[in-house]
Amino acid sequence: MIAAASPPLTDLLPLRSELQIRPAGHDRDGAPVWALQDPVNNQFYRLGWVEFELLSRWPAGRADEVLRQVAAETLLRPTQDEIEALHQFLMQNQLLEVRAPGHARNLHTLHQRSHASRLRWLLHHYLFFRVPLLRPAAALERLSLWLGWIYHPWTAWLVIGLSAVGLGLSARQWDTFAATFAQSLSPAGFLGYLVALFVTKSVHELGHALTATRYGVRVAHMGVAFLVMWPMLYTDTTESWRLADRRQRLAIASAGIISELALAGLATLAWHLVGEGPLKEALFFVATTAWVISLTLNISPFMRFDGYFVLSDALDVANLHERASALARAQLRRVVLGLVEPEPEALPARLRRFLIVFAWITWVYRLIVFTGIAIAVYLFFFKLLGLFLFVVEIWWFIAKPVWNEMRYWYSQRARAPHFRRVLLLAIPAVLLAVALWPWPTPVRAVAWHHPGQSVTLYSPLPARVQFMAQQGGHFSAGSLLLILDQPDLSYHAERAAITRDTLDAEWRGVLYRDEGLERLPLVLQGRALREAEWQAVVAEGERLTLTAPFDGKLVDVDPNIEVGTWVSPRQPIASLIGPDPWLVEAFVTQGELPRLQPGAKARYYPIHLPGTAWTATVVDIEHTRLTQLPHPMLDARHGGPLPTLPDTRSPLQPRDSLYRVRLALDMDGKSPAAVGWGHVAIDAKPRSWLIEQLKPVVIVLIRELIF
């Protein structure tokens, strides 16, 4: 059954009397454009030549009469479909007067659709809403008379020069600047950044408002906007669309960023010039806040901040995001589905390609930003509400657009070539199979190599070197390696021996004198004490003679140590390496442990020998978390690969949860030249990439769903 076609539009409803049409310059191809202003809602609609000519004759009242007048008085030949589409647009945006009951019902229906329930409005707008506070038009006109000098070219050059000097001084004192920033990361510093943010945003919005006033644009109101519950100042410069000069609109859009950058540059210079005190701290907060906000947030064109409006005016493309997304969706449908999709609008090829790439980058950027916002919302509220809002944000900003596009693809599947439909189903199936298939991927980890049997020689106490064996020599167990001397120890040994000998002579004399027998116990006790002291000193002195505990080779002798040099107990003097095979110690995460087993083969890549791979075999797997790195060279603070925790009792405590895996190097009788670190790839049990990626997600979901 074929539905009956709707009758053509005949009678036109009149436009609202307060609507205004103003010239808005020219399009990219030179065609004139106009702006239709709705002063009640403070909305502007851009009109092309055809729409302007139709609205200029709209009071004729009948569609056929309007079409006839346009065709007779201009070179245009609008169609019935075009005037009906314009009438529908005016009705949807409530730009027509209410005359008939049927029209009133239609407007009421549109009003009900546009004003959803309070709950839905809250869900859609709690992340961003505005609260108007001021109507500053009169005050801005008086202020612009006083501050007209800031728009002089000499002012701009002066600010640029002073900012360059400030940046140059910061580059020369970068260490001081970085240290000051690190010190500012505290609760008091956070409060300072909040105050600085208020100051910079006030200057930012004042730049918009003054520039708009300078070009005769009325600033309807200023107020506070809440972005993810965070208050920010805003200025309503919607009426800038009244301007026909695109450069003036561009100046208004970029005035905020320029003002903020000027404030950042001047505050940076002032920070270097003033003395220590509260003022210097305040200038640092203002400078860093203005630089960071301007260069990371305001300048980005991927969200509706200043950078977006600047790019929109520079390209002369209104509704930049929507139009770029429409072009990108059409291109995606043509490439993926092979659909013969019409272009949403005719644009130059170069601009069209730019907008498509811009839309793709915007999609990726917004995916990251909205995911971060959803996580922030979840963490900000209590668990039940946070989880609900997290799901809402993921659905509304990420899943719903993808779902709508997939629904369109499904509805147009009959138009797609058969080969494309098969390919569209086969590619995801193949990718899913590849992601689920258990692939024998190796476990990769940071590792270091060292001798299987080694000892580092230290002096037991501060001493002076009397003898030291030659580096590279081979020594058997018990061979002499190092002789140290401690003069204080020799003095104490000599004094204890003299005292002991004196007491020896005294107790022997007592045995031959009857009158001294009562002193004999005291003499014997003193003699025993001095004997013990002498033996302790002798034993301590014996520790100053170091011998080889096993057969090995002496390496890593400190080149700064020679006979007569004093050494500290914490100063490594040399190392003795035994004949046992060298070992590799790898540091793997907990999730990789179940995939490893003793006897597995591995390849070790030393960092000091690029392109070299040594084979190794797993000999031991520890299931206890590593609490201290085995060597300082592995610490990231010393140029190593593993980050450690600062300000801990153990200076080499790793930041991450790591587990030690020992491997024996297969060097065919050869040995590495020295201890070092590198990376190891260990053969492991096969695993599915997708399952491994889903495991932490499932763990987090189970943990967070338990209330």
Number of helices: 19
What is the topology, as strand order, of the major beta sheet?
8-17-20-19-18-21
Distance between the termini: 56 Å
**Helical/strand content category:** alpha+beta
Domain module tally? 5
* Low-confidence region ranges: none
What's the overall geometry?
A: elongated
Mean pLDDT value: 81
Main beta sheet: 6 strands, antiparallel, barrel
Helix proportion range: 40-55%
* Gyration radius, rounded: 41 Å
Strand composition percent: 15-25%
Number of strands: 22
Short note summarizing the structure:
The chain is of the alpha+beta class and 707 residues long.
Please name the defining characteristics of this protein.
707 residues; alpha+beta; 5 domains; four-stranded antiparallel sheet; 19 helices; 22 strands
Written account of the structure:
The model has no long low-confidence stretch (mean pLDDT 81). The strands form 6 sheets. The chain has a 6-stranded antiparallel β-barrel. It folds into 5 domains: 96 residues, no CATH class; 197 residues, no CATH class; 68 residues; 113 residues, no CATH class; 130 residues, Elongation Factor Tu (Ef-tu), domain 3. Strand 2 and strand 3 form a beta hairpin. With 707 residues, the chain is an alpha+beta fold. It contains 19 helices and 22 strands. The two termini are 56 Å apart.
Any chance you could write out the topology, listing elements then pairs?
Blueprint: E1 20-26, E2 32-38, E3 43-47, H1 49-56, H2 63-73, H3 80-92, H4 101-114, H5 118-125, E4 128-134, H6 137-146, H7 153-172, H8 174-184, H9 187-214, E5 222-227, E6 230-235, H10 246-273, H11 278-298, H12 306-315, H13 320-337, H14 349-380, H15 383-411, H16 418-436, E7 438-439, E8 443-450, E9 454-457, E10 463-468, E11 474-475, E12 480-485, H17 487-511, H18 520-542, E13 545-547, E14 552-555, E15 566-567, E16 574-577, E17 583-588, E18 601-606, E19 614-625, E20 659-666, E21 676-682, E22 687-688, H19 689-705
Antiparallel strand pairs: 1-2, 2-3, 4-5, 5-6, 7-22, 8-17, 8-21, 9-16, 10-12, 10-15, 11-14, 12-13, 14-16, 17-20, 18-19, 18-21, 19-20
Helix pairs in contact: 6-9, 7-8, 7-10, 9-10, 9-11, 10-11, 10-12, 13-14, 14-15, 17-18
